[in-house]
Amino acid sequence: MSLLSEFKAFAVRGNVVDMAVGIIIGAAFGKIVSSFVGDVIMPPLGILIGGVDFSDLAIVLKAAEGDVPAVTLSYGKFIQTVVDFIIIAFAIFLGVKAINHLKRKEAEAPSAPPAPSKEELLLTEIRDLLKAQNDRQG
């Protein structure tokens, strides 16, 4: 088997195609989540917490000298990234919780009882005939 035919067999297998679709959808979903957090969640949250932004917090390790920029330990950016992550994780948690709640409601909805099978109908008929026969005799 040639290398090209082996690659073709590998690339068109179901798992690889499914994984590729998942990665593409995941990337698109990441953009949706980023927009949701940045454009919907963060503005009101920024108002609530008074516009606190940790990004500017840093320790200057070495001052700028001429054309050489200052060397800083930007711990504020890390703190801001952690806060953003917690907000994103919480937003996703609420979304997943809402979806699971809707799925649970669908599962709890009573379904119509299944129609009796042909055998059950026949046995019911036989039972009724025997009962009627016993009532006439007794």
Automatic annotation (TrEMBL):
Gene3D superfamilies: Large-conductance mechanosensitive channel, MscL, domain 1. Keywords: Cell inner membrane, Cell membrane, Ion channel, Ion transport, Membrane, Transmembrane, Transmembrane helix, Transport. InterPro entries: Mechanosensitive_channel_CS, MS_channel, MSC/AndL, MscL_channel. The chain crosses the membrane at residues 12-33, 78-96. It is a multi-pass membrane protein. GO terms for cellular component: plasma membrane. It is found in: Cell inner membrane; Cell membrane. PROSITE patterns: MSCL. GO terms for molecular function: mechanosensitive monoatomic ion channel activity. Its main location: membrane. Pfam families: MscL (PF01741). Belongs to the MscL family. Channel that opens in response to stretch forces in the membrane lipid bilayer. May participate in the regulation of osmotic pressure changes within the cell. HAMAP family: MscL (MF_00115). NCBIfam families: mscL, PRK00567.1-4. This is Large-conductance mechanosensitive channel. It comes from Pseudomonas indica. The lineage of its organism: Bacteria, Pseudomonadati, Pseudomonadota, Gammaproteobacteria, Pseudomonadales. The gene is mscL.
